[in-house]
Amino acid sequence: MTADTHYHLLTPTHSNSFNTCFYCGCIAATHDYAPPLQYVEFYLATREPSEFLKIPVCNECVELLKACKAGTLDERRLFARAALAKKYAKALTIYDMWTADELATLDYSLRHSIEAGLKLGAETTERLSFAGFDYEAGGVSQLVAENAPLRFDVFGECFDTFREALDFASKAYRIPKNALKDAFADNGNSFEQAINTIHKQAAEKEFNQQLKQQCAAFAKQHKQAVIFVHKQVERYLSENADMTITEALQQLYNTRVKPAAARR
Ligand SMILES: [Zn+2]
Question: Where does the source fall among the domains of life (predicted)?
Fold first, then answer.
């Protein structure tokens, strides 16, 4: 008896899924085994979770799954998906970052390489979202639940893909895609929080620049030490949230600079 006889062949219920890789939807050319053939004895001896399925898969998935010892279909599918995402990480990033109409502005060689990345990224995204198919194995039917569709919300605008949402949010809120993608990950996978955080950071940066410039100009005009002006203005502002930098400088002038000048 060969090890193969322990397994039930996973057969698609519907003919349109024949010859399809169960993990990624590409053309199936070979089989994956859950658990892997070389671990059959281990799984039989330990009764560790395993389904003894022989699964139609593509050559690439079977290659990626050589490193996977898991015994169940779900575990192996997740492993294959993670391995595909890792292998094509660069193309997936390009796919998230670029749209076809942006390519027109690039020179030929760069455009050529981005175009290739876009195509590969689109293919990989499709493979990663493949949900499997209904099947029978050993006389038992299994319905594969469709994954809940993805939805990305940007202040009330809904998108089916991260890529579309990123493109929209980047243009609508004038934030570079790279920065927005990082902020999305750092802010609970939320575009709204990411955009708010970036705008707040930009406002703070602008405020600090204004503070520095105006304090320096004031110090020069009234022959004061910059550090003194800066510290006083910051103190006034911290005591009064509604006060502007200009008002704080005016207060500094009225309370400290003018009286001192009058005494001289
Ligand atoms: Zn595959």
Answer: Bacteria
